[in-house]
């Protein structure tokens, strides 16, 4: 009887290890899966999976970056700004977060500018966009997107000389495509 129990145990043990491994991979969302959902137009599902990723790996900036990007894609600018500010407390010098937070501030400003009473608030968001983009450029002066967001926000604020200076830097560094993917 003992031998039979040992045999059953040996047969079941690998199965339970495999089940545990399967459960573990189910619990930790893969970045590739998050991206697949986003690419398939399933932004809310990707966002939910992204948040699970962030809970499981709070020190990995991927989750914070992706959450902010997804919220921007979904047009949820207030949520994007909240997420970005929270994430910057953990990842203070993350260039991609700074860049996306600048973009979120700029998009919020554009949204507010459509409202008759929103011009003052729009201006404040554009000032934030400039500050975040300047921090991103300071951290990595070679990032085209950071320079592009900075130049656009400067222009929208009416700071034409600064915007022209930024545009010149962009054109000198990236003569074939100054604005990049923006």
Strand percent estimate: under 5%
**Radius of gyration computed on alpha carbons:** 23 Å
Fraction of residues in H or I helices: over 70%
- Secondary-structure class: mainly alpha
Question: In total, how many beta strands?
Answer: 0
The residue ranges in which pLDDT falls below 50 over 5 or more consecutive positions are: 6-25
Sequence of secondary-structure elements: HHHHHHHHH
First-to-last CA distance: 71 Å
Q: What's the rounded overall pLDDT mean?
A: 86
Q: Report the total helices.
A: 9
Could you explain how this protein is built, in words?
With 182 residues, the chain is mostly helical. The chain is 79% helix and 0% strand. Helix 8 runs antiparallel to helix 9 (160-173). The radius of gyration is 23 Å and the shape is globular. Residues 6-25 have low confidence and may be disordered.
